[in-house]
Amino acid sequence: MLKLGLLFITCITSNLYCMNFNQSDSRKENLASVSILQMANIIDKEIQKKFISGEALFSRSFILKQHRKSQQQIAIVFDFDQTIADKFYLNPLIEPLLKELKKRNCRLIIWSIAADTITLKRFFLRYPNLEKFFDQYMLSNLEIQLKPLKQKSMLLLKSAYNYSRSAHIRFKDILDYYKSSCFAKNIAIYNYHLIVDDDPDLIKHNQLSPTLLKPKGIIIPKFFIPLNEETFLKDNPDESYNDYVEKYCEQYLIDNSQDDNNFIQNVLASIDLIEKNRKKKSSLLSQKKQHSSA
After folding, report:
1. Mean pLDDT, residues 30-56 taken together
2. For the whole model, what pTM was predicted?
3. What does the alpha-carbon distance between residue 120 and residue 51 come to, in Å, rounded to a whole number?
4. Count of CB atoms within 10 A of residue 215's CB?
5. Reduced to 3 DSSP states, what percent helix, strand and coil does the chain have, rounded to the nearest 5?
6. Residue 257: enclosing H or E segment and its boundaries?
7. CA atoms within a 13 Å half-sphere pointing along the CA-CB vector of 252
8. What pLDDT is attached to residue 163?
9. Is the dihedral of CA 223, 226, 230, 233 positive or negative?
10. 61-95 b/e with 16+ CB inside 10 Å = b?
11. What Cα–Cα distance (Å) separates residue 263 from each residue in 192, 219, 220, 253?
């Protein structure tokens, strides 16, 4: 409770509601009628319900559940730090993109190597209208991925790839994959369709997955606010840090919304192609079943 209380104080003193949420009038009224404490409890319950980490990431029940869901919806994984947010400020590309993806009935997931429940709570207290867009939060199990040769890690990794119907893969290839990048987010295990990350090396590494399914990835321009609030105010005591962030966000949005460099349109084009291929595959399977039953 003490930690949660400190979190609330931090949130309040940091002007958590200084940013424009672009919420609908009805949503604004609902939020206005809820106290910070009530909102924190609501957000906390939602995050806990959707959050998964540790060995559970490699469990049979979790992996098979993801497979079933990925058959029904396109699943898109987002990194958190410098992709969705930096210094707890929202990347201006994210909210309009989330809205478009939800229109296409996509399943949206945050998979991070650092964003724990406290980080997510603090972020969603600042942007409470965004939590509803996400269906799941995953925190990488670096204890296993950092030590793939440890017996317990080996068993968990081997089991995970077996559950994901990758039993044909040599276990040596699985170990080599994690040894080459312990920060890997191999979305192929879960049959997810696309990953969005600011790290080009991670996107490339996904293509080295030992699975037959090679995960698609899109690089989002790194969202990095150069100065934190303390440093900025030390050098610019008479200026507003929020104005500084707003100007950075405006320029970032301009740079990445041009016709030849429109990040959102590039993502949506990839989703449309994935959906087209899914329908084609479904049609071929249906024809095959009809042919076999004839």
Report:
1. 86
2. 0.84
3. 10
4. 22
5. 60, 10, 30
6. strand 257-258
7. 23
8. 81
9. negative
10. ebbeebbebbeeebbbbbbbbbbbbbebbbbbbbb
11. 20, 9, 7, 10
